[in-house]
Amino acid sequence: MACNVQETEQIRDDDDLDAATGLDVSEDVEPASGCTDLDCGDEEKCYRGVCYASCSEESDCDDESRCYQGHCAPLDCDGVDCGSGSTCYRGVCYSGCSHDEECGADLACVESACVDLCEETTCDGGQVCHRGVCYQSCDDEADCGDEFRCDNQGQRCVPLDCSTVECFDHEICHRGVCFPSCVSDADCDEAGAECVESACVVPRCDDGVQNGLETDVDCGGPECPACEPGGGCEDDQDCDSEDCEGGLCQQPCVESRPDEEVCTDDGAQCGSAVDSCDETVNCGGCSGEDICTDAQQCVECTEASHCEADEICDASQCVPDVDCTGDDDCGDDQICEGGSCRCNESRSDSVVCSDAGVQCGTTTDVCNDSVNCGGCSGGDVCSSNQCVECTGDGHCGADESCVNNDCVCDSLSCGTQECGSVSNACRTVDCGSCSGGDVCSGGSCVECTTNSHCGTDRSCVNN
To answer: How far apart are CA 165 and CA 173, in angstroms?
Structure first.
C-alpha cells in the first residue's frame, strides 16, 4: 500500500536517464517536500515522493503491483509522479516517447514510454531474450539449425525467414536481424550500410552472405577471417593456406618426402635445404671435424679460412697453429708430425684413470679421447666417478637409509615400551627389565602372567 505525501515540482535532466535502457533512474532525487526512506514505515520504501510496500521479489507484492528496485510499484501508476518528459508504465517511470525511433536501440515505445520488452520476459535455460522474444543462445553457427544463423552481436539463433523476429515500425527484418528501413543506399546513415531488400544492412563477417569487401561468404578481404580451400579470393592474404590461384584458395602444400630425402635430392649434406612447399628443412651438421661450407657440403679443410683463428689446415684437418721440427718443440704428451704438434697419449687406461682420481665411469686422456675406468665391486655404486655404498635408499638393506653415500641403520627407540627389547632388520634396543617382582608382558611390567607368579591361594587374573 502506498503512503501519499505532498507532491511538488521535480527537476530532471538527461543524467537521470539510463543511457542503455532509457529508464529514469532519478528516484534518489525526490520532490522538495516528498518522502525519504526514513519517512516511511519499517516495511516500506520511498519512490518519487511516495511510500510503497518494500519487496525483494514478485511474490512480496499483490496482484495489482510488481516488484521494482525494492518497492511494490502499482501497475495502474496510481500516485506515481514521473515529472516532465517521463511517462509511467506499470508503476515505473520511463523516458517518454511517441514512436519507437525516439527510444534506445532495443527499446520499444509502449503506451508513450520507452520500455525494455525483456524486462518482464522469462526465458528457459539456454535461451536469451531480445525485444521480448526468447531465442536459443549460440556461440557459432554449429549451435543453430539449418534455417537459422547465429547473430553474434546478440549471441542468439535467429530465423533466416524472420518468422519470429519482432522489428519496430521503422525497421525491416533481413536474415533474422532488424535494420532501419530504406529505399536506396542514400537512406542509410550508418557507415558502410547498403540498402538490401529494403533494409539498411551493415556487412558483417557472420551474416551468411557475401557482402562488403568479402571475397566469399563471410571470409576474405581486409576485415573478415581468411577463406578455407575452395573459397573465393583475390590474393594470397584472402586464404588461410596463403595460396590464391585462379580466384580460388588452394589446399595448403604438403611435403610427402622425409627431410632426409629433401636434403639428399637437393644435394645438401649439411646446413639447410628448401622443399617443394618453400619450407626450410634442417639437414644437420657434419661429423667429426668436417666443416659445412656455404654450398651445404661437408669437407675437410682446404684452406685456413675453414678453421678457427688459432688453427691451420694441415692434410685437410684443422689443427693448432704450432710449428715444430721435432718432438722437443712440442709440449708433454705431444709429438711433431707434418710440421705440427699432435697429441700422443702413451699411458695405459688404468694409469689415466688413476692419475685423474677416477674410480669408475669414464674420463678423458690428454688427447681428449674417452677412457673407460670400469665399474664398482662389492655392490657399491658409481657416483661422480667415485665408488660409494649408495646414492639412494634403494641401494641399502631393510631398515637402512642412505646418508652421505653410506648405508646407515634407521634409528630405533623403545617409545612407550617399559621392558624387553625392540628390533628392526639391523639393530636391537634393550628396553630394560621390571623391578619389585613384576614380570614383562607385551613390553609392559605387570604383577603376573601365570598363577606361579602369585602367592599361596592366589591366582593371576588380568595380570
So the answer is: 7
Residue 314, CB half-sphere, CA atoms under 13 Å: how many?
Answer: 15
pLDDT in tens, 219-229: 999 999 999 99
Say if strands 439-441 and 428-430 run parallel, antiparallel, or are unpaired: unpaired
In the structure grid, which three cell numbers stand for residue 406, read together?
A: 653410506
d(CA 104, CA 93): 15
pLDDT by residue (tens digit) across 372-402? 999 888 778 888 898 888 888 888 888 888 8
- 3-state SS assignment for residue 39: helix
Biggest CA-to-CA distance, the chain: 127
Tell me the three cell numbers of residue 326.
Answer: 721435432
Strand pairing report for 381-383 and 439-441: unpaired
What DSSP line would sit under 248-284, residue for residue? EEPPPP---S-HHHHHHHTT-SSEEEE-TTS-EEEEE
Alpha helices, DSSP H only, in 160-282? 259-265
Q: Which residue has the cell 543511457?
A: 19
Is the alpha carbon torsion for 169, 170, 173, 178 positive or negative? negative
- 168: number of Cβ within 10 Å: 18
The one-letter amino acid code at 417 reads Q
Q: Which residues make beta-bridge pairs with 65? A: 74
CB-based contact 344:335 (threshold 8 Å): yes
Element (H, E) at 403: strand 400-403
- Mean of pLDDT over the chain: 82
Q: Supply the DSSP symbol for 361.
A: S
CA 420 to CA 427: how far, in whole Å? 14
CB 259 within 8 A of CB 283: yes
Is residue 351 within a helix (H) or strand (E), and if so which, with residue range?
helix 349-356
Over the range 185-196, which residues count as b (16 or more CB within 10 Å of their CB) and which as e? eeebeeeebbbb
The average pLDDT across 83-109 equals 85
CB 118 within 8 A of CB 129: yes
**What SS3 string covers 380-413?**
CEEECCEEECCCCHHHCCCCEEEECCEEEECCCC
Among the listed residues 179, 182, 190, 226, the one whose alpha carbon sits nearest the alpha carbon of residue 205 = 226
For the stretch 12-44, pLDDT in tens is 344 444 543 344 444 433 343 467 777 888 888
**Which residues share a beta bridge with 413?**
none
Q: Which of 364, 389, 363 is nearest to 376 (CA)?
A: 389
User: Which cell is 148 given?
Assistant: 537459422
Q: What are phi and psi of 141, to 5 degrees?
A: -60, -30
